Each structure stands twice: as structure tokens, then as C-alpha cells.
Amino acid sequence: MKLARFRRWFVDCYMTADARSLGFGRIILSLILLFDLWHRARVLTLFYSNAGLVPNHMMLWRPPTQWMFSFFFILSSPDEVAVGMAICGLIYLLLMIGWRTRLMQFLALICVLSLHGRVTLLENGGDWMLGELALWTAFLPLGRRFSVDAVRASLRARRETTAAELADRKAMDVSGSMAVISLAVFALALQIANSYIFNAAHKGGPTWREGTAVHYVMHQDRMCTWLAVWMRPHMTLWLSRLLSWSALATEAILPVMLLAPVRGSAKTSARRIAIICVIGLHTGFQLFINLGVFSLSMIGYTPFLLTGADWDAMGRFAQRRKRRLVAYFDASCGVCFQIVRLWSRLDVLGRITFRSSADLAAPIAPAAGAAPDVEPKMGVTPELLSRTIVVVDEVTGAKYTRADAVAQILRAFPVGWLWSLPLRLPGLHALANWGYDVFSRRRERISVGLGLAACSLPARPEPPAASPSPGPEPAPAADAPPAEAQITAPSQPIAAMVAQAAAVAPAVAIEFADPPVAAPEPAVAPVAVVAPVAAVAPAPLEPAPFRRQWRWLVTVLREGAVLAFIITLVSETLFINAAIPKFLKHEQPLWIKRLVAYPRLIQAWSMFASDAPTGDQTMVVDAVTVDGRHVDPYSEATSRYPNPGRDEIPDRLDNDSFVFNYSGRIPTSGAYHQALTEWILAYHERTGRPNDRIIRFDAYEVDDDSPPIGQLKPRNIRSHIFLSYPPKR
Amino acid sequence: MKRSAFYKAFSETYLELDPRTLGFGRIFFALVLIGDLLRRIPRLREFYTNAGILPNHTVLWRPPVARLFSFFFMSSLPEEAVLWFLVCFICFFFFLIGWRTRVFHVLSFICTTSLHNRMLFAENWGGVAIGALMVWTMFMPTGRRFSVDAVLASMRARRHETPEDLAAGIPPADNTRFRSFAVLCLLLQISIIYWFNYVHKSGQTWHDGTAVYYVLHQERIITWLGLQIRLHLPYWVTKLLTEGTLVVEAAVPLLVLTPVFWRVTRPLAIVLLVGLHGSIAAMVNLGIFSAAMIAYDPWLLDTVHWRLLERLVPKKRRARVVFYDVDCGVCFWLARVFARLDVHRRLKFVSNRDTAALPADLDRDVLDKTMVVIDPGMPSRRWGRADAVAEVFAALPFGRLWSWPLRLPGINAIANALYDRFARNRTRISTWLGLAACGVPNAPRLVEEAPPPPTPFRSWLRVRRPLVREMAVAFVFVILAAEVSVANPSVPRALRFERRPDWMVAAVMYPHVFESWSLFSPDAPLSDETVVVDAVTRDGRHVDPYNEVGSRVWSLPVDSVPVRLGHDSFWCDYTLRIPDAPQYHQALIEWILRYPERTGRDQDTLVRFDAYVIWQDSPKPGAPPEPTNIRKRRFLHWPEGTP
User: Fold this and answer.
1) CB burial class (10 A; 0-12, 13-18, 19+) of residue B236?
2) Could you please report the per-residue DSSP string of A464-529?
3) Which residues numbered 15-74 in B keep a CB inside 8 Å of some CB on A?
4) Within an 8 Å CB–CB cutoff, is residue B428 touching chain A?
5) The pLDDT value given to residue A486
6) Of A240, B85, B523, B596, which cross-links A215 as Cys (Cβ 3.0–4.6 Å)?
């Protein structure tokens, strides 16, 4: 009993996530992945191709780690790498919209690990966090909500045939329980908490104790932003202390908020605080220093921390907005009805009521708060509906048609202003109206082509149910036309089909002769849709036992894999972090080392620890061309300053994170100097000028000491040569 | 009318293939792919890992061709390479059995390209032949017959099949011939390979009939049988083989492309080609080349040949009636599967409910324990349990292969025990699988409804899909035709597409489908060569780490090319090329110096070595059998700077 209670408690505290959080998290994760890809595409030639500084053969010859995985190793030329990145981009987009989500999760994981694994020489903690986010979420059903998969599942499970059936939005939700229970949920929280625990624990040096850390970070010209450059003359000790200690305090409090053993409203509150802290902390980082994708990666964890209570609160807030629309559409247009079915599923806030032309005679209750003298159907006639959809704002009485109507519907969806914006822009608006008219004129043909009903033509027939079991047969819908009215020649010309329909299905023809005036009952609703079967698909049959057991086995294997990765995380954490006491250190078995290396499950968290760097560093190249000029091919390609020299480190080099990591590591990585030499000597090939041929060069590492608080100029600038050509004896 | 008759004849001759040919061709091809994969396993460490002589970083640093694709470049460690080998095997296997055939056809193409391109430096034209066959057959529905896909499609199409339907027999499979420009391209491909191989054999050794003689003096490729032929058979035999080779290579394009009597000439081409490549494989080791060329032959079969084969198959002798328990869901399901595998229609499945069909002397209770198979020609011959299963297998194509294990004494007993166990638990198994079981109706299952008829849009797409396919075939044809024109010197200058755009060159390079056909051309090699490494260990011994791994003979000193070196094709081609490939010498040095790691003996640490290439001229016909003009050149020395 105690064990069962403990299990329930542990599941509630740590292993339960809301499906909406997973769906929203998937969208945010995809956006971050796309940003990461864009960030790397900018340095495609420099760091991902053999024309750059980190050729694939060099990485494979002297790998930074024994176990590496990346499909980018098989791509050598810039155009090959571009194709590889384009494939990654496509996968990320499909993940974002939630199409074949499980497959895309797996492929996205392969892509992100490949992108990072190709340039492990240049990776930082942000890359690890992003890869780990992709890894843990790969075990979660991110497509259950806010996805194309979810919409398609709903469309398949419930085949409405009338506008009235569209009103029952709850029945459209077939995605199952909102609660998702998995060890991977716990792993996510553990992962992010882990990074903060040790980032805080390792920050024990003088700059953090004295509160000067933020000041010194802002003097890192290789990574600071323009805001940092503007800010640092105004930096005082108390301001630096405030920022430094608050960052430290935030990092210290976050693990508590994330791993607090609380449930229910306490958990919701703790998570909300954590989300605010994470976003605040990393927004602050990103404003002052460029750490690549680090800040975004950390923020990417926050959607997964939202609880069901948060979503309910957001739903209540959204419902407060009084916007309510009534959308009238042509009942006899098959493709129109299918689009309306789709829209009703996207209308998660329930702001739109859909009514067909058949419902025009029926009275509707005015919306709450609507002016009592508003007549929503004013001016809405079957003739108008035969040309355009009509949307009426119940509150204001405004009426919209054509592209404007579509824009109003899109506006009613979540983040609707974004989807509807293109339709409302001046030039695009006219184009949209033109496109709408073209569609409207051809909607019959489109409907017939797609096998849907169109204006007195019945839909293509549905086959009889195929189940051989003597289960209960679903009751046919009251509005279903007689089976013999169905025609099975969708490829015939329309005229022939009309003639056939009239000859074979006089009952159907009669139905469409006069649009029903009062049609409150679905029995007289016209056949406008695909299948003359019940609105709800037959209740799902029991799966065969072996299928149930197979699903159980898959679940067990999946959770087992998560557990193996959690064990790896814990082992790596204990092994690699200096703050761990010696007695907890251990020799890692080979399988753990591989599970760390291949998916980059690294847990070394010591950013700006133990101290913020009190000096800056960069790399410059002094190369002499064949006509005697001094150039710096490296800075030309990587910095704001094409030839900064070695007498100072200029303000805000504007390096991206790959460049400053490369600059910081290459001086002491002799194995990769040959590639750097060859790249520098290929300078004239890049510029296309034969006079740029390099005859000799020296590569310098330039260091300085950052100024203390109250001063602005760096001190003690020094440089030393780490590479020369021709090699010096 | 004349035009349509001409088109019909042209189409039948050059554009159509029987689906059975597609299926059989697929199976044979997949077996060749699996064989090609398996023969690389002993060389996995040397050629697919960084512990070998061709590390991935070396090949990427100095690739043998400008455009190269292989996912094996991702793997550095042996276990990583093993994993990718496993992936390849899975793809080839599913291609063989025809499950999701299209998908695994494409994946097999990617796998085979990766396998070959990873060690292009040590590959021969067998890989190119495989690649070309892959390219053309990818446009064909090779899974329409003799495949899991075909069986599943048949079962889906008759999902409401009853035992009576089964007893009446499955409708014959659809043998509508497949028509496509890709068929003509395949025929042209076969013809081009042999035509250019023939035309390019313009040297003296082919004119005077000594080519095979000289080939048999290639110690690096000769087999044991080839050595016996060389030693014991008279010279005129090899002269005959030389002329026979030329005759076959010249005749094959005519036999394949002739518009008249092609139903006779193509099987004749098959016989000749099997003979040619079989004898080549018997005498010299050219790796997968011979098998790859033979893999083209099944695609020459036509409908008339299949009908002939069907007539030759004895149906009545192995005809059987199978009585099974229809209340057992899994038994009925198995009966449906076997009925579809029974392409020769030897089996008649009768349910135990059909009491009229049951023999009078058959105890009905027996059918509760086992299925019963009866010979209709001799009803007293009956089998039950594992023997009954063996009889059912025996009725299937290549049935003896599947059935003989069940008849072996020890295995038969085990099979019977397993059968009894299955029979006792068949109700539970059926229920578990969601099938009907003994009085329990079919468990309702989440099966999709039969698909509705296609929408007009889908029908429109379906009609146009072959057009898209044909455009793709035409596109590939243009690319490869351009490659043929440039790669073969015998093509007149006026016909050469010399200024190809880069993308066309890349399209040929990536999948490595170079169309240069000149095996042993213009002359057979008049000399032989090998590589010898004379390495000195720490304790003063002389060893040859190179030939210890790749050769039959590794004792030192070596003054001439040893007899029958026993190289595999990879080692042979690597040996031929490495002396003149200094970009790969560093990798070879490092591999040689890792000798003590491979032997596990510390005293095998090397202190210095020299690598030599040894040439010799093969003895002329009629001259004493010893090689002449033996030369030796050192091409590698370690450490550098020492004498």
C-alpha cells in the first residue's frame, strides 16, 4: 500500500505532463531547432564543408571524442552540406506542424545530433541542452495536440454530415487523456534542474562572491552585444552585484522550484515561478552576450513545465473575450463542408458557430452580451451563400464576405492575428479575393474531383463496413440518403453524373429542388458531404490481445530506454562535475560512456564558473600577400573588423558562438592546425584575386585583462604566435 | 493499322516484361546483393574501419572521385561498421522477400552504393554492374509477384474469403505485362556492356587467341581450378575459350536486341552468359563481377518461357488435398497464405466442415488434433502433423528445399512435438491474434474498412503516374547515354557528349554508374604483379604483415610473384593501385605499424619496413612456364631517412 501510494505521489509530482504542454512545447522546440539550423547555415562553408576550417576528414582523423555520430561527415562540398541542411529544415518544419509527429521527432533528433556532432570542436552548453531536449522529448507524444496528426485523427474518427453536428466540439476531441505519464517527463525536469544546480554550485570564485562577474562578462568583446557595450560605461559595483547575485540566486532557486515534491496547485505555482525565472534569466543573458542557441535552448524547456491548470486558466482568459462569429456556408458544397469541418477543429476557443444555407430559416439565440436588436442573418440569403461564405460578428453585427470572411475566421483561432494578417494586407487582400472568387466558381468541380458531393450530386459511395464480426451495426444517420442513390462513377463528366443522379436517385433530386425552409432536424439536411453514415464512426473495436500486448511491450521498452538514459545522466553528472564529492566519483562502464558520447548527453555545467573570465581573448592572422600587403583572412571572415591587428581587442568583435569557440580552442589544438593553414593559404581562391596569394603568415592568440569596475580600457595586452607558415624552425 | 501492329510488336519485344520475370529477377538480384555483403565481412576491419588500410578520413581527404556518397564514412570503429552492415542486410533481406518492395528497393540502392563507394579504391566493375541494374529496376514494380507484398495484397483483396472460396481456389494472379521505357533501357544496358567489352578487345592477345592464356597467368586472381586448367589443359583449350569469349560477347547484343525470334534468342543468351560468367568465376576471382552479370539474365525471360516452365512442372505428382480445422482462425489464415504461395496449384484446401469431401475411412476426430494431407491419386497415402506440413511445403516452388529439414530424423521428432503443442494451443493462439477460434466468432479487431473507390482526383493522378515515371526514365537515360558516349573510346567523336553540365557528371558519380566497359581490354595483361612488405620486428625477424592478411603466401624472401596468391578482389585491386597512390601511403604505413596490435604479441613491434612492388612478364605460349623479366621497385620505406 505504501509503495502504491508512493508511486502515485511520484507520478503526480514528477511524471505527469499535460498533452497541451507537449504540443505547445513541440512547436517551440521546432522553432528553436530552425533557428539553430539557420545559425549554422550562415557558417555552412566555414565550419561544415571541406572548404572551411573544420573539414570532415580532419575531425575523423583526430576526433575530439572517441564516439561520434553525424551524417554530415559524409558531406564534403558546400552544396552537399546545403542539401543536408535543407533536409533538416524540412524535417523541423514537419515536426512543427505535427505531421507524422513520432517519425519527425526521431528524425529531428538525428538531425540535431548530426548538426552538433559534426562540429564538436565548437560546441557549448547550449548545444548540449538543445540536443538533450530533443532526446528526452523523443520519448513523449508531442503530436497529441496542436498538430496535423491530431486534426486528421479527429476528422477520421468523426465524420460529420451536417452543420449542427459541428457544434459538438467536445466530441471532436479524440486525442484521449490530457495527462501524459512517462519517465521522460521526470527526465526533462531533472535535466534542466541539473544544469542549474551545478552552474550555481560551481560559481564559487571571487568574481561571483564579490559581485563583479556580470561586469567582467560584459567586457568579453568576443561575445558581448551592442547593449553590453553601451551598458558597461554605466556599470557600477552595486548594479553589477545586483545582476550577478540575482543570476546566482535564480540559478540556485530554480532546481528547488523544478524538483519540489509538491502536487496540485503548489506544483503549478512552483512551475510558474520557474518559468518566469528561466525566461527572465536567459533573456537577460541574451541581451548582453551572444552564446549562440544557449538561451533559447533553456527557454525551450519552459513550455513543458506548464500544467493543466495553466491551460485551463489560459482558456478561461481567452473565453473572456467577447468575440463571437457566425459563419454561414453553402450546404451543398462538399469541399466547403470539409473545410468547415477542419476549421471547427482549429477553433479551440469555441468562438465560431457554423451554419449552413439549410439552417437559414432556423432562429438562433443571440450571443450573450450582443445587442438585442442585432439580426445575425440580416442580408444573408441563399443566393449570397452560393457565391461566398458570410461571417457575421454577433456582437457588432458586422458582416464579412470572401477573403474578409476567411480572415475573420482565421482571426478567431489561437494566434489568429498572425494567420489572418496576410489576407488583410492591401496588395495581398486583393489577390486573396481574386483567389477566393476563382475557388468559389470552381467549387463544384473541385468537390466532384475530390469525390465529395456538389450541388444536388450525391457523394461517391462508401463501401459497406468490412468487419466480419457480429458486432452491433452503427445506426445509419437519419439524414443519410438511400443507398441506391449513390453513384459509383466519379470519373464521368459532371453532366452525365447529374443525369444519372436524376435518373437513379429521384429522392435525392427532390430534396434539392427547394432548399428546406425550416430544417431543424438533421433528417432533411442535404447530402453535402462524403459519407451517408453516422456522424460518429463506429465505436472503436477492441484490439486483438497480441496488439494490446505489443503496445504494452513497446511502452515498457520505451520507458526502459528512458531509464537507461536517466541512469547515464546521473552517472555522467557524478563523474564530471567538480562539485561532486570524491567518494561519489566512479569509473563509468563502457556502455554509459557511449550513451553519453553518441547523443551528447554531457552534464558538465560550469558556465562562467568558477569565475567569470577576467580577461578577453581572440585570434588574428597577419598574412602577407604576394604583392606585399598585410591582410587578416580570418578576421575578414569572422569579425566586424577585417584587420584588427594584435595591439588590442576591439570593442564587440561580433563573432558568432562558433567563431569565438574556435578562436578559443584552436591555439592549443595542434592536430587541427594543418586545416587552418590550408584554409588561410586558399585566401586568393576565395577572393578570386591572384594578387591575394599568401606567401607567409603568423597566427596570433591575443589576450588582455579586462578593466576593473570603474575603468573602461583593457590592460596588459599580449599576443603570441601559435602557428606560422612557412613553419619556423 | 500497320502502325498499331508495329507498335504492338515493338512494345512486346522491347517495352514489356512479365511480372513473374520482375519477381524472379528481384529475388536473384537480392541474393547477389546479400552475397556481395557477406563477402565483405571478412574485410570489414581492413576496408570499413579506421583500424584498416583505408580509413574514412583518408578517403575523404583524398577521394578517388570528386563526388562520393557513402554512409559508411560515418563509421570509424568496427562496431559502428557492423551496425551499418546490419542495416544493409535488413534492407537486402526485405527486398529479397518483397516486403514494402519499393521502399526497400530504394534503400538497397543506397546501401549498395554506400558499400561500394566507401572502398572505391579497391572496387572493380562488378560494383558498377550492380549499380546500373539497380538504377533501371527501380522503375519497375518488382514486388508484383513472388513477394510478401503480393500475398498481402491478395489477402486484402479477398478479406471476406470463406473456406468454400478457398476450396474453390484462389483466382489466378494478375500476370498483366508491365510496360515501360525502362525495360528497353535495361535491354540496352545489357547489350552495351557486352558490345563495348567486345569492341574494346582489339589487342593482339585477343586476335591471336592468347588472352585467356595470359589471364590464367595472373597469380593475383587465378583460382585453384584456373591453376589446374593452366597446368594441365592444352593450349588450344585456352585459345578456344578466348575465341568463345569474343563470340559470346559479340553475339549477346544481337541475341538480346533482335526483333525476330527473340523468344528463342534471349534464353540462348542466358545460357551463353551463364556459361561465360560461370567459367570466368571458376577460373579467376573477379569478386562479385560474374554474379552481378548473371543477375541481368533473369530479366530476359518472357511470358512464353514462364508458360513453358509451368508445363514442365509436374503438378499431378505432387498434388495434395489438405484437410484442416476451419474453426481454428490461425489455421484458416495459414491455409489462405499457403493457397497464395501455391503458384503451381497443387494444393486443394478442404475444411473439416465439408464432410462430403472427407474420405469415409478418415476418423473425424483426427482432424481435431492435426491437419491431414492426402494424395488424391492414391488416397491411402496420408500424412499428419509435421509430415503434413512437409508435404504442403513440398508442393510449393522449390518445395523440397523447405520440406527436407522437416523430414530429417531428429528434426522430424522435434517438429512433431512442436506441431502437437501448437495444435493443443491453437484456440488460445487464434484468440490472441484476434482470429476466430473454435466456436468463438472472430474477435472484433481494429481493421480498416475496405478502401473506398478512388476519388476522381486520385484517378487522375493514377493515370498520370506512369507518365511521370516514364519522364524520369527518359531523364536517367539521357544522363547515362551521355556517360556511355564519353566513357567508351570506341564511340565516334561526333557522337560524344563531351561538354556535359556538372550536374550530369555528379548524377553519374554519386551512385558510381560509370559506363566504361573494357574488361581485359584492349589486351589481356601480359604481366603480373604483387606487393610485398619486408618488415623487421624488434627481435630481428622478417615478416610480411601485408600478405599475412591478404594472401595465401606470406613467407619471405619473395623473388617473384608467388603462384596463386589467393587474393580476394578487394585485396587484388588495392594491391594493383597502392604503389602509385602516394596519398594513401600514410594510411598504409600506420596500418603496417599496428601489426603487433593485430597479432597481440609485443615482440612483433616493427622497427623498420620496406614495401615493394614485384612485376614479372607472363611466359609466352609454348615457352618454359617460368615468368621472365622479374623486376622489383621499392615504393614505401619506414622510417624515412634511414637507408
Assistant:
1) exposed
2) PP---S-PPPPPPPTTPPPGGG----TTS-HHHHHHHHHHH-HHHHHHHHS--SS--SGGG----S
3) 50, 55-58, 60-61, 63, 67-71, 73-74
4) no
5) 34
6) A240
- Cα distance from B511 to chain A (closest Cα, Å)? 14
Q: How far apart are CA A232 and CA A245, in angstroms?
A: 17
* Contact (CB<8Å) B450/A56: no
Number of H-type helices and E-type strands within chain A = 30, 10
Question: What is the dihedral angle through the alpha carbons of A279, A285, A286, A288, rounded to the nearest 10 degrees?
Answer: 140
> Rounded to whole angstroms, how far apart are CA atoms A167 and A58?
62
Do the Cβ atoms of A189 and A302 come closer than 8 Å? no
- How many contacts (CB atoms, under 8 Å) link A and B? 127
Do β-strands B16-17 and A630-631 pair in parallel, antiparallel, or remain unpaired? unpaired
**Closest B-chain CA to A493:** B456
Look at residues B591, B551, B542, B552 and name the one whose alpha carbon lies nearest to residue B575. Answer: B551
Judge contact between B54 and B47, C-beta under 8 A: yes
Packed helices A183-202 and A237-259: angle between N→C axes, nearest 10 degrees: 150
Question: Among residues A119, A92, A160, A182, which one has the least CA distance to residue A554?
Answer: A182
- Residue B624: which region, alpha, beta or left (left: phi > 0; alpha: psi -120 to 50)? beta
Confidence of residue B442 (pLDDT cuts 50, 70, 90): low
User: CA A696, CA A624: separation in Å to the nearest integer?
Assistant: 6
Are B249 and B235 spatial neighbours (Cβ–Cβ below 8 Å)?
Answer: no
Residues in A whose CB is inside 8 Å of some CB of B read 50, 55-61, 63, 66-71, 73-74, 76-77, 448-451, 460-463, 465-471, 488, 490-491, 540-547
Helix (H, G, I), strand (E, B) or coil at A333: strand
Chain B residue with CA closest to A78: the answer is: B67
Query: Residue A234: its pLDDT value, please?
Result: 92
- Angle of helix A101-118 versus helix A78-97 axis, rounded to 10: 150
B534 in Cβ contact with B522 (< 8 Å): no
User: Domain boundaries in chain B?
Assistant: 19-143, 195-306, 314-448, 527-638
Rounded to an integer, what distance in angstroms lies between the CA atom of residue A414 and that of residue A416?
Answer: 5
* Minimal C-alpha gap between A346 and chain B (Å): 26
Separation CA B552–CA A594 (nearest Å):
38
A610: preceding bond cis by omega (within 30 degrees): yes
Which residues of chain B from 332 to 361 reach within 8 Å of chain A, CB to CB? Answer: none
* pTM for the model: 0.89
Return the residue of B nearest to A544 by Cα: B434
What is the Cα–Cα distance from B36 to B108, expressed in whole angstroms?
12
- Judged by a CB distance cut-off of 8 A, whether residue B432 touches chain A is yes
* Residue whose cell numbers read 568465376: B281
Question: Chain B partners of A461 at a C-beta cutoff of 8 Å?
Answer: 452-453
DSSP, res B195? H
Interface of B with A in 444-483 (CB under 8 A): 444-460
- How many Cα atoms sit within 13 Å of B37 on the Cβ side? 25
- Residue B630 backbone phi and psi in degrees, to 5: -80, 130
What are A525-574's pLDDT values in tens digits?
343 444 333 445 555 556 788 899 999 999 999 999 999 999 999 999 99
Residue B125 to chain A, least CA–CA distance (Å): 23
Write out the three cell numbers for A13: 509530482
Residue of B nearest to A72 (CA): B74
Backbone angles phi, psi at B529, to 5 degrees: -155, 165
Phi, psi of B117 (to 5 degrees): -70, -25
User: Cell match 576471382: residue?
Assistant: B285
ipTM, interface predicted TM-score of the complex: 0.90
